[in-house]
Design brief:
The structure is a single chain. The chain has one domain: 3 helical TM bundles of succinate and fumarate reductases (Up-down Bundle). 88% of the residues lie in helices and 0% in strands. The chain has four helices and no strands. It has helices at residues 3-36, 41-48, 52-81, 86-111. Helix 1 (3-36) crosses helix 3 (52-81) and helix 3 (52-81) runs antiparallel to helix 4 (86-111). The chain is elongated and about 50 Å long.
Amino acid sequence: MSARAETRLWLLQRTSAAALAVCVAVHLATIIGAVRSGLSAAAILGRTNGSLGWAAFYAAFVLAVSIHAPIGLRGIAAEWLGWRGRAADAVFALIGIALLALGAYAIAAVTR
């Protein structure tokens, strides 16, 4: 892979890390606040049903994960296993697509 492509991946991973930091903080603060208020998991999920705001938030969260994780795994595989090249890139792209699809399924199930 060219240096330009590697730089783009590096920037994508750092940008997705920043988005993940915000998403994780909001997610944890929301869950902790809801639990401290005495809401059960069922009550919390009941409040997310039909919410476009929460669906959009979690869509951003899932998108950030589906970008960040495969790039990180690709780097680990390259460093620890010496696995590089198009086959490795294809596998990690498929992992990203799978994460995106599973996340979209979860969002649909929680916010429908």
